[in-house]
Amino acid sequence: MNGQWTMLELPAENLIVIALVSSHHLGITVAALDPRHGEEPRRHKEFAVRWAELSQAGRAEALRDALEQTCRPMNLEPRSIFIACSDPSLSATSVTGWSALGEDVRISAHERAFALGRARTHATADDREQLDVVPTYWTIRTRDGQLDCDDPVGQIGNHLTCHAMRVTSRRGLQSEFRAICEDLGLHLEGLIPQPIALYRGISGRMNKGGTQLVIDLGARHTTLIVRRKGRLLHLETHPFGGDSVTERISVALGVDLVRADDIKHEIDVDEVPGDDLEGQQSIFGEIQERQRQHSIAARTAAECLGAFFRDRARNLRDDGDLLSQRGQVHLVGRGAAIRGLVPFLSAVFRLEVVLGTGSKNTDPGAELDGLLVAGVVKCAADRRIEHLVEQASSIRGAAGGIAAWLMQPLA
């Protein structure tokens, strides 16, 4: 953090507060949009919160306390907030939007925004709601043919097509978070799908060739993200995670969840012991009993993880041939700490598996936190900029009024 720079040097519309909701933690990030530095996180704090186990009142209280402890030392009181979250109902489909320019002209940001806007207008099923539409690439048609590119602005063409990934969730997810924010007197500025934030954070650090598969094995959810040739192709989220493995071990051994979770972190799912100890009725010594428990737990975890990930690998290969013969699997999340999971998944997906970005001497959990923070800041910054541009273009005379509900210094 730049020691010569303070948040209060920037206007309120350049300050962003984001809450990252996960199974076991609630994180608060304060970030800045600054001409000198671009978008940049300025403060991040994490709090041990089991969000799923709390009532709405408990969630509101946890969010209030986290905001208070993060923002008050900075002399800030947020009036609006972005929330990044995951949910087993998250899914993504490919959509397009277009802008017909008539003749070859230099494409501006306005045409780009118009095509993206059309991509956002596709109908949604009654039980689904749209969270985000993420451009993956653009196709420009000219008199001489057509070309694909990552950013069309400045290119010459007569027709522009936006290819995008549309992320939806179960209907009601946004209203749940909006109600919590309203209880705290906050405006919910946007709900950011956490898988998209993770992709934004990690995409620049993945290899460009072959298939890049990101597996975020969390406590309660698992997300798979597929990128090929530098483009986001697929995203899916499932109600399966490290807690699912813990529950299976608990049932298999007849122990409580705390003990089952401890055992889960002691076993190696790629080295499952044989059956010689299982089923014996004699009295074991402490060492033999521990070996017996580990044998059963390792086999149970391997069966549980194997069934889930073999189904995912089969579906990715059968549904659009999303997995190629070349590439990498990037394993992140709390579940990445399970021993033996890297070679185990390598055998399942028949691809090289690395922890996180593959950087040596890096803790996967700490790296995931950094990737998520970087990603949510990018997502929130894009939405804030888009909102400010819309404000400036539609009500130029009143654009300054936006600051009243964004942020204000504490008295």
Largest sheet strand order: 3-2-1-5-10
CATH domain class of the largest domain: Alpha Beta
- How many distinct helices? 9
CATH fold-level label of the largest domain? Nucleotidyltransferase, domain 5
**Number of E-type strands:** 16
Terminal CA distance: 25 Å
Q: In percent terms, what proportion of residues is strand? A: 25-35%
The dominant shape is globular
Classify the secondary structure makeup into a structural class. alpha/beta
Count of domains: 3
Give the CATH architecture of the largest domain.
Answer: 2-Layer Sandwich
Overall pLDDT confidence? 87
**Main beta sheet strand tally, sense and closure:** 5 strands, mixed
Gyration radius, to the nearest Å? 24 Å
Could you outline the blueprint of secondary structure elements for this entry?
Elements: E1 15-21, E2 25-34, E3 38-48, H1 56-71, E4 76-78, E5 80-85, E6 91-106, H2 109-119, E7 128-142, E8 145-149, E9 156-170, H3 173-183, E10 187-193, H4 194-202, E11 211-217, E12 222-228, E13 231-238, H5 242-253, H6 257-264, H7 286-318, E14 327-332, H8 341-349, E15 352-355, H9 364-394, E16 407-409
Parallel strand pairs: 1-5, 5-10, 11-14, 14-15
Antiparallel strand pairs: 1-2, 2-3, 4-16, 6-9, 7-8, 7-9, 11-12, 12-13
Helix pairs in contact: 1-3, 4-9, 5-6, 5-7, 7-8
Brief overview, please?
This protein has helices spanning 56-71, 109-119, 173-183, 194-202, 242-253, 257-264, 286-318, 341-349, 364-394; strands spanning 15-21, 25-34, 38-48, 76-78, 80-85, 91-106, 128-142, 145-149, 156-170, 187-193, 211-217, 222-228, 231-238, 327-332, 352-355, 407-409. With 411 residues, the chain is α/β, with parallel strands linked by helices.
